[in-house]
Amino acid sequence: YAYLVALLCTNIIKTINPTLIILNGPVIENSKFLLNMIRQIVKQNMLNIPFEPSTIVAGELQEYAGIKGAIALALQTIFEPPVTKSHNYIKIPERSI
């Protein structure tokens, strides 16, 4: 189990290079040994790869993690500043040869 979760964390680090990875669930929350094994395997997998180290921690929200994450995503979507396209770009004149 630790190897598979560590492999997932390694792939996430290689793909998006996050500064923090939060693992959640009853198995992770109740086993510090498992979390330490995951960290150790990820560290071994990333020895020859030039990425910044990610911090891997156990989540503290327990059963509220899903609903709080959904609320945070909804708030980000609602209050996201609008992105407008700028049409004020410089046109480079074409050269005639």
TrEMBL record:
InterPro entries referenced in this protein's UniProt entry, alphabetically: ATPase_NBD, ROK
Gene3D superfamilies given in the database record: 3.30.420.40
Name of a matching Pfam family: ROK
Cited SUPFAM superfamilies: Actin-like ATPase domain
Name of the protein in its database record: ROK family protein
Organism this protein belongs to: Caldithrix abyssi
